[in-house]
């Protein structure tokens, strides 16, 4: 047993230096040495989920580490501890992989899982009278900050604190489900709370188009223009929806100019940067780029785990979700935060 302990402690130290703190805590910290001989090192883990995670995602890491530490091509046997599982006899024996692991390039998310939504955040549609309709939960306080979104968050916060004075317009682009609508509505919620005299209007591009069509049909263009132009802060979601719609772009061009000339703030979101929105008028493209264009990237596993924890606290009515389950979701669903 002493040999197994010494061997595994050396392996554990090496593994810990090659992975993040979150991965170490959620995957490897609960492993315990059982036995070691000339051919096999046996290690136990708390449950089959962790066993399978090591087998599926960290095979090369653990086996090459064992080979490096022991100077031998040992076979690593991982078993589930009998006092912590319903299937104690289940075990897996992993053949040692060839020593090709490079710790400088190791990435736990190399094997991508299929794109699937995590948890869905419901966004209310604008009210019929054109007033702002924000989700009260989409605030800066509830936004989980990580390396992938830190700059976009800081820019949105700066705009909310001093609307019309910096980054005008602010253009946030990201793939679906990465938090751009959250930041957009967080700006609105902050301004409404801290500057109650200011008029704030949130609208999606699709709703903007539908209202425009209805205004033309019902000969109410004047009311339509007042609804969108007489605002201190205009928040427009999914601006890429205006792609290829010349009449809509013409109307939004004048709306944009009217608000900026009056000292108002404009914040836009899109699934791509302005230069990648084809059939967008050059005069609109140049205006979208005249402030600040910022990108939200896909979050790393630590940020995804933090988001899941916050979501579980908010949405599960006190029901605790085990960390292993949250980590499994965070590790396997890597693209869409919703």
UniProtKB/TrEMBL annotation:
Please give the InterPro entries that the UniProt record associates with this protein: AAA+_ATPase, Chromosome_initiator_DnaA, Chromosome_initiator_DnaA-like, DnaA_dom, DnaA_N_dom, DnaA_N_sf, P-loop_NTPase
The UniProt record lists the AAA+ ATPase domain at 166-294
Keyword list, A-Z: ATP-binding, Cytoplasm, DNA replication, DNA-binding, Lipid-binding, Nucleotide-binding
Fetch the SMART domains from UniProt: AAA
Keyword DNA-binding annotated:
yes
- Gene Ontology CC annotation, any one: plasma membrane
The terms under GO molecular function for this entry are: ATP binding; DNA replication origin binding; lipid binding
A single Gene Ontology biological process assigned to it is: regulation of DNA replication
Indicate whether Transferase appears among the record's keywords: no
The protein's matches in CDD domains, at most eight in alphabetical order, are given as:
AAA (cd00009)
The family note in this entry says: Belongs to the DnaA family.
Q: Supply the name of the protein.
A: AAA+ ATPase domain-containing protein
The species this protein was found in: marine metagenome
């Amino acid at each position: 047993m002493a040999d197994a302990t010494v061997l595994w402690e050396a392996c554990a130290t090496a593994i810990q230096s090659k992975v993040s703190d979150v991965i170490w805590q959620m995957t490897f910290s609960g492993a315990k040495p059982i036995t070691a001989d000339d051919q096999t090192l046996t290690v136990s883990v708390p449950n089959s989920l962790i066993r399978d995670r090591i087998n599926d995602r960290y095979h090369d890491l653990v086996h090459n580490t064992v080979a490096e530490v022991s100077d031998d091509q040992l076979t690593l046997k991982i078993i589930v501890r009998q006092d912590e599982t319903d299937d104690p006899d289940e075990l897996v024996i992993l053949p040692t992989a060839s020593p090709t692991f490079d710790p400088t390039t190791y990435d736990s998310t190399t094997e991508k899982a299929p794109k699937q939504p995590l948890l869905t955040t419901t966004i209310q549609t604008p009210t019929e009278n054109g007033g702002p309709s924000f989700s009260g939960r989409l605030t800066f306080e509830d936004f989980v900050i990580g390396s992938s979104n830190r700059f976009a968050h800081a820019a949105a916060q700066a705009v909310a604190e001093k609307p019309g004075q910096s980054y005008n317009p602010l253009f946030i682009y990201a793939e679906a489900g990465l938090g751009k609508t959250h930041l957009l509505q967080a700006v609105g919620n902050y301004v409404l709370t801290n500057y109650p005299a200011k008029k704030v209007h949130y609208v999606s591009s699709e709703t903007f188009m539908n209202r425009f069509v209805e205004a033309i049909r019902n000969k109410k263009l004047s009311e339509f223009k007042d609804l969108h132009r007489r605002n201190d802060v205009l928040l427009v979601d999914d601006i890429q929806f205006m792609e290829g719609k010349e009449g809509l772009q013409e109307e939004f061009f004048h709306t944009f100019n009217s608000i900026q000339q009056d000292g108002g703030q404009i914040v836009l979101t899109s699934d791509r940067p302005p230069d990648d929105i084809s059939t967008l008028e050059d005069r609109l493209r140049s205006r979208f780029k005249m402030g600040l264009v910022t990108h939200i990237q896909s979050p790393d596993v630590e940020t995804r785990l933090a988001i899941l924890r916050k979501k579980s606290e908010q949405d599960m009515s006190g029901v605790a979700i085990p960390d292993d389950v949250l980590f499994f979701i965070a590790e396997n669903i890597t693209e869409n935060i919703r």
